[in-house]
Amino acid sequence: MAGESEGNSLQSFSPKNESNTTNDINLETLRRRVRKYIEMHLYQAAIFWADKVASLSNEEAQDIFWLAQSLYYSGQYHRAAICIKSRNLHK
């Protein structure tokens, strides 16, 4: 049955088999991607990737800056300001 095959694959997955995702993902490559999209004026794509990088890096200041910059360039000024102020990076 369909449910059985799904159940078997879910049973083989366990947290102890899960590796640290930030080690598997090269954050520097994703950061370059964000900067590339900003340079190409593809701000929505930059916002998407900047948000992912910020989440994966536990909201490092440089990643929040790139996210806020992408938001600002796309005309989302209020969201950019909130992005920075909510993390006390404006001081």
From TrEMBL:
Pfam families: ANAPC3. Transmembrane segments: none annotated. Keywords: Cell cycle, Cell division. It comes from the Eukaryota. GO terms for biological process: cell division. Gene3D superfamilies: Tetratricopeptide repeat domain. InterPro entries: TPR-like_helical_dom_sf. Residues 1-25 are annotated as: Disordered. This is Cell division cycle protein 16. It comes from Araneus ventricosus. The lineage of its organism: Eukaryota, Metazoa, Ecdysozoa, Arthropoda, Chelicerata. The gene is Cdc16_0.
